[in-house]
Amino acid sequence: MTARRRIILTGATGLIGSALSRRLTELGYEVIPFRSRHDGSGGFNHLTGQIDRAALEGAYAVIHLAGESIAQRWSDAAKERIMASRRDGTRLLADALAHLSHKPTVFISMSGVNRYGLHRTETLDESSAVSAAGFLPAVTEAWENATQAASEGGIRTVLLRTSLVLSSNGGGLQKMLPAFRLGLGGPIGGGQQRMSWIGLPDLIELIVWCLDNQAIRGPINAVAPQTVTQAEFARTLGAILRRPSFLPMPAWALSILFGQMGRETILSDLAARPAAALDGGFRFTKPDLASALRQAIGE
Questions:
Q1: Pairing state between β 61-64 and 106-112
Q2: Does a structural domain hold residue 292?
Q3: Does residue 19 lie in a domain region?
Q4: What is the tens place of the pLDDT at every residue in 221-273?
Q5: Which of 63, 144, 156, 207 is deepest in the core (most CB within 10 A)?
Q6: Structure pTM?
Q7: Per-residue pLDDT for 3 more than 60?
Q8: What is the count of structural domains for the chain?
Q9: Does the residue 100 lie in any domain?
């Protein structure tokens, strides 16, 4: 195995990281997990500033997925953990990459469509204005800015702005399925807020596509071409499961249950279009919600 085929992967045990690691291995890459909050060899720790630079030398690519989960109630302490893991962890990694003797060809770092804000009336592509109004937009702003050292160091840097990733093995869809299978699902907060999504297999293929596509750098909307309202999502999921999906959850109830986290995720109104991917020739295997949901839940 040559050094060109060696890929360093943070967040390798998560939903996306596990699937990506399997796919890259199938394609002949050597995948090296790089542990977060780890002071020893083969890892980095944004809390202590320690990073194993030797493990990064000569890698073909570094893919950075690690970060504190946002799927928790946002106390002040939780917010600081979320922000620090993305801002400080990414900066530590990007700074180290910029000073390597043998730098990677590409640095792919996760971000989110909330870089555009929380509520926008237009359909957004990578040329759209961004916003830092709100906690998640502020996190994604700091997250993306933290990669600057890598791009200034001559490393092609890709910022994957993701949204809801469809999988029955983790993430938001897995949490929804029990209620929908019981016929207790339905629109949330009126259901007219627009949402972006992507099937896990398409996200994995998009990341692989970014590895060797020299024209891709900077932000890329890692979302499917079709955007839907929250009500349309609930109706489609109910139809696939052959269950009713009309029981609404008002916004105030969601706010009580999840606080600011619910207001900035489920009640956010954003429609993003994957213009950079489509214009670059990437083809989604499941571009519509119904087929992606069937794939995700095996129906």
A1: parallel
A2: no
A3: yes
A4: 999 999 999 999 999 999 999 999 988 888 888 888 889 998 999 899 999 99
A5: 63
A6: 0.95
A7: no
A8: 1
A9: yes
